[in-house]
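INTERNAL AUDIT FORM
Audit reference: QA-55
Scope: verify that the stored structure record matches its stored sequence.
Auditor: D.O.
Record contents follow.
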Amino acid sequence: MNTEHLERGWEETVALFERRGLPESSYENLYEESYDVHPGPVTIAGDLDLDLEDTAPSGAGLVVDGDLTVEGSIVNVDDGCPAVVVLGGLRAANVYLEGDAKLLVLGSVTVDAFIGNMTDKLVMIHGDLRAKVTVLSGEFSPDLVGGTLHGAVVAPRYLDLAQDVDPASVLVPEVLRADGEDDWCSFDAPRVHGGRLLSRIDEGLPVVLG
């Protein structure tokens, strides 16, 4: 992520959170270390890969003081990735979280697909989650959606956010799993092949119909 930024210590970072009205309940579980603060608005061409070492080279995470637009997808697969705090709205093609991501958004999130697998995450959206489809797996559910969750939700029935929706009506056929088919990402969202879903996102291919 090669945008202009300032490295700020924890106290300075918290002071910025307080000025922008981010509740302490959102940031209290972040690492109390330095953060790369980027004046907003910020636009990133291509993907924001949270597993790359240079995503937040100076600190424990990156803070965007304003809106963040990612023209590709936000992707996290591995543990140990930097936190992402957006003190405005977030727009991206897709969000795919599978590692131990920490994503805090003061405004709304607008994406084609919002995908989460496994539970070791902190995901708090204080505005709306505006997605064409949200795919939840492995007991993952956002810690907070302060506004309205728009769009279809494909999730196992044990999750409160699960809807009675046919995955074939919202997802491209290439990411649907046949009965008995193995999935190397072990998704338990109904009929979703998580491995092929991630592969298409990595390749910049659509995963949502329409």
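Auditor finding: record pair retrieved intact. The helical segments are 10-20, 24-27, 194-202.
Action required: none
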